[in-house]
Amino acid sequence: MKYAFLFAAMLSMLALLSAAPGVTVGLVSPADGYSTSSASIAFSFIYDRGSPVNPAVTACSIYLDSVSKGSVPDAASGENSTIMLNGISGGLHTWSVTCEDTSSGSRSFTVTSGGSPSVTLDSPSNGASVYNNANLFLKYTYTANGGPSPVTCNLILDGEDLGPYETNSGEQVPWSAGTPYEGVHTWRVACTDGGSTNVQSPQYSFTVQPPASPPSVALNFPADGYSGTTAPSAFGFKYLAGNTGPKSNVKCELYVDDVVKYTAYSMSDGSSDTTSVSGIGAGSHSWRVMCAGSIASETRSFTVTKTADNGGGTGTGTGTGTGSGSGSTGTGSTSGGGTPATPRNATPPKPPVPMQNTTTPPQANIATLYAPAQAYLNLSVSATLVGNGGTPIRGAAISVLKPNGGIIKLVTDASGTVRYVPNVVGVYSYSVAGYEVRGAAKTTVVEQPAPPQAPGSDWAQLINYGAIFVGIVAVAGAAVALYLHFTKKKEE
Fold first, then answer.
1. What is the mean pLDDT of the chain?
2. Mapping DSSP to helix (H, G, I), strand (E, B) and coil, where does residue 434 land?
3. How confident is the model at residue 468, as a pLDDT?
4. What is the pTM (predicted TM-score) of this model?
């Protein structure tokens, strides 16, 4: 009997321990059974880590009819997270949320028939200009608004039908148009379900400009490989804006041995500048120019040979007669038809170095990627892609190579930014389709440091676990009391 009581007490203690707070995700809206005629619905949920030892931020995905439709890469514990889904077809649907360490239940909702299907031309925008140096993608989105999905859509470019494509509601389709000729073009999209649904987009136009020419810096002089007993008397360079770089008020810095020696604050397209640099000693050196913080010239080298000292010296002449000299490179004089003396430490003159073509050939699709050098495990990481002029690049395909060999495929938003949540410690590297990328090439992900406790959180945990401890003591006390009671009865 006494063992039965002890076993019951242990089960009670385990039950109380299992009541400790855990990770949950709760659905907020829409409510279960919700009905609407709109094909666009905002879905809200709250992720609750339950305990300070669990991640404060995690990645969560929303599932519509068991298919992933969107994600929140940095859902914060205790905060309301929202995802807007568009183009939801009419009928009965279910939705749920799955985070990295937990999942919600599911709810149902209904989209009643209402509104009309539509097709939107996303890019290029009406009247936009694009550069003729890369494969052009025309992007559109079909929205069912309670109508059929999928449908068959045809893209018409300059009056030519480029063929059908099966398109789902809410799906943005990137249609390759190749490399169109320079000039003005028109395009539109027509979608049909083969029956009563026939949707036409408006007609847009765009202009194809000559190939993009990125900005560059040309080094004028001294030539690469210059060598002399003194430093170059002047350094000259020229700024070229191309058709994508800033045209005026450009800041350019001249570096000698990677130290800024001169700054020009208001360079403009095609302008040149010349400056002298003092304090350059003997030895091998390098120089370059950087404009607008990211437009770099080539790097050139030059050598300053050791200058002769000013001590006394003598020289000797050949033939009859003697030579006298001053300085370490003596000069000889002869009499009687002698030959002049050979200077001491004489260096034969070098042939002149021919000037090189200093114009940097244009390179297409150069961009800069800004990403952190270090990030923390399970916390959101952002990376931003910009062009040489600092303009965000939208719609670029970025691949993130994970340390375990996996690949995360992302597309930049309107601000040129992508976000992801690393779930493996190690080095994450980046590549961008169709671009030569400068700047950050990798992010090192490390374990999160222990987070500081928020004021009052220790008290909350003490109260939680204090209550559990009191419950355990109470159950154990009751078990002991019952055991003593029955033991005494047995003895009597």
1. 79
2. coil
3. 67
4. 0.33
